């Protein structure tokens, strides 16, 4: 994959596998950064259930920070792929430098903002007097690693965009291995508890950030990170943000969703139900991460060939992405519905929490089989540079449908907790149907327009 022309010439199926398999592996391993923390913390003696719930309350902030990396990383990666397809390497490098500067600025701002308002935000997000110390202890240390998180996640998109999928996977693998090794040492060996888990994650993300920086400044990279491009230039960054805002909203609205779920479940059920939602959201995070990996594998192919005018290859790449995403989400749906206890046991084994979490997972995942349609179609819009459509679809599932349903359904159903859980599958199915219909209408027209632009 070091030959950039392979994006436009290699067989699409083989190319997709070569890019997507390492990206999927990287996404799954990336999920371990937070999942491993919850696995260890959930099995802490005596207070494991409360500590796990505390991490769930801190989860909205963690997800928002990760989402900031998509604003520059996925938006910049999409634009850079199109520039490479047009053989404009200087323009692609300007995008890389501008996105790096943007990531640094966002990291500093996010660190200061959340450190100042940490505890009021956690109380707003669903913390109780029992879980606040754990949430605050974890987040207080995690925030100091924001720069590393944004650089590692954001810049790794530029490695994948160039076709270095294996190296991109190693960026995540190295950090995850560090986290897995350091977690038990800090949590149990040094008896640091949740603060030890946060410190392990920060150190692991720092290693990943240094790894990807060394690559982008080294000899193997096709797009080099150059000092003269490290500036916030509107002409470079505004088109990037226009595309990146869609995946940013998709991920950042997870924060709003988590806040809505946690506050509603604390109101109607209490800490055990917030803990069960922490487990459900953790399983969902792992379950949907491979979709992001599949999209990362398809995005360079779609973007490059769209820029190069090879529209048949664009169609092939989308079809393959669609089939893979839909197959995967149907498989996840079946596994969770049939064996929810297997997933729950990874995080906690207290009988009350296991009973509540079993009910939660079965309802929460009831509509996930349709999510593959939403993911494949929306991410293809992102790869094609269709900012407005991808933004609307990013808002549709969570902001327009899910969050209102979390608060509306309990007004009409007698079982309030069940009504809160039910909001997720209803939103999943409605959003997937809408996205699929919109894509079927818009996709051929987008390709037709490109044909006219190229005069073919």
Description:
This protein has 456 residues and is mainly α. It has helices at residues 6-9, 12-42, 48-85, 89-116, 118-124, 132-142, 146-161, 165-189, 193-216, 234-268, 271-308, 311-338, 340-345, 351-364, 371-383, 387-408, 416-454. Helix 7 runs antiparallel to helix 8 and helix 11 packs parallel to helix 14. The radius of gyration is 21 Å and the shape is globular. The two termini are 29 Å apart. The mean pLDDT is 83.
What's the arrangement of secondary structure elements?
Blueprint: H1 6-9, H2 12-42, H3 48-85, H4 89-116, H5 118-124, H6 132-142, H7 146-161, H8 165-189, H9 193-216, H10 234-268, H11 271-308, H12 311-338, H13 340-345, H14 351-364, H15 371-383, H16 387-408, H17 416-454
Helix pairs in contact: 2-3, 2-8, 2-9, 2-11, 3-4, 3-6, 3-7, 3-10, 3-11, 4-7, 5-6, 6-9, 7-8, 7-9, 8-9, 10-11, 10-16, 10-17, 11-12, 11-14, 11-15, 12-15, 15-16, 15-17, 16-17
